[in-house]
Write a structure and sequence with these properties.
The chain is α/β, with parallel strands linked by helices and 300 residues long. It is 24% helix and 27% strand. α9 crosses α10.
Length: 300
């Protein structure tokens, strides 16, 4: 599982940092979380491929989280996309997109399936590779966090070992389930000779934009990595609260209480050019913190 930051600034772009967007790659499938202005250009810049890109999640209706969506949707049609795209967001997103498409007399070449996000915490996507659960956060308007959980894929095939024993790829599935393989001459190939332990399923939590609120702990606890917004530093904690945002120290306190493996900070206010103080304030509470850098990818 890999998180790639396409934009990590708050409402205004500043110092080369774009508004919020990030991808989460699970078994090669790319999920997009939020789509701030310029996201399609950021995807090009950082080599995000549109093959295996089928799910977009929008946390809330502040423009820095979805103003890039009409452009992305339109470009994929112009580039000949035919695979359906699943879009999850607040119910008010759908009529806005419909109006934009209707006003331009645009008929997309692919099916855009819109899934309004339920108020309560709900599993909204369930595929062979992953699940995504949305949950409410506190941001003054309807706003959702998301948890992505990988599914196990059984044992990992060692292709070279399999070929040594003459086991063909069409016989891999029972091996992934842990079964031994019997060759045509009756020889038994032990499972552990040709497979290894599969990857441990990972859990990623995406929490933006939100006040510090412990109501989200049941959903994010035990995550291998938590992305938590940290719009401000401690000096501005009153401003953070008044604007329904969090500080770096609050994000760290949340990661600590959630028993997270790592904390990834983002959604920085445009007032900050240098971000070192975000790491310092957070690390005093939760040492395993990363100040996200646009264009960087983080493996879980
Ligand atoms: Zn925002
Ligand atoms: Zn917001």
């Amino acid at each position: 599982m890999r998180v790639t930051i396409l934009g990590n600034n708050s409402a205004l772009p500043a110092f080369g940092r774009h508004p919020t967007a990030q991808t989460v790659t699970v078994y090669g499938e790319v999920l997009l979380f939020d789509c701030g202005e310029g996201t399609q250009m950021q995807m090009q810049r950082y080599g995000v491929k549109w093959k295996n890109f089928n799910h977009v999640f929008i946390s809330h209706m502040h423009g820095d989280h979805y103003f890039g969506l009409p452009g992305l949707i339109n470009s994929m049609s112009l580039l000949g996309r035919t695979a359906p795209l699943h879009l999850y967001g607040p119910a008010t997103l759908q009529p806005i997109l419909d109006l934009i498409l209707q006003a331009a007399n645009t008929i997309l070449k692919y099916d855009l399936h819109f899934h309004p996000l339920p108020e309560e915490a709900t599993m909204i996507a369930d595929t062979q590779a992953f699940t995504v659960t949305s949950f409410p956060v506190q941001h003054g308007i309807e706003c959702h966090g998301f948890v992505v959980e990988m599914k196990t894929r059984g044992r990992r095939i060692l292709p070279e070992k399999c070929s040594e024993y003459g086991i063909a790829p069409e016989d891999f599935e029972p091996l992934k389930q842990g079964m031994d393989h019997v060759l045509p001459d009756g020889t038994v190939v032990k499972n552990e000779w040709v497979t290894d332990v599969g990857p441990r399923p990972r859990k990623y939590a995406y929490c933006t934009d939100t006040l510090y609120t412990e109501t989200i702990l049941p959903f994010i606890s035990g995550a291998d990595m938590i992305y938590h917004e940290s719009t401000y530093l401690n000096d501005d904690r009153e401003k953070a609260e008044a604007r329904f945002h969090s500080t770096a120290a609050q994000a760290a306190a949340m990661a600590l209480k959630a028993g997270a493996g790592q904390l990834l900070l983002g959604h920085f206010s445009s007032k900050y050019k240098e971000l070192d103080a975000f790491r310092e304030e957070a690390a005093a509470i939760f040492p395993n913190v990363i100040v996200s850098v646009q264009g960087e990818a983080y493996d879980l």
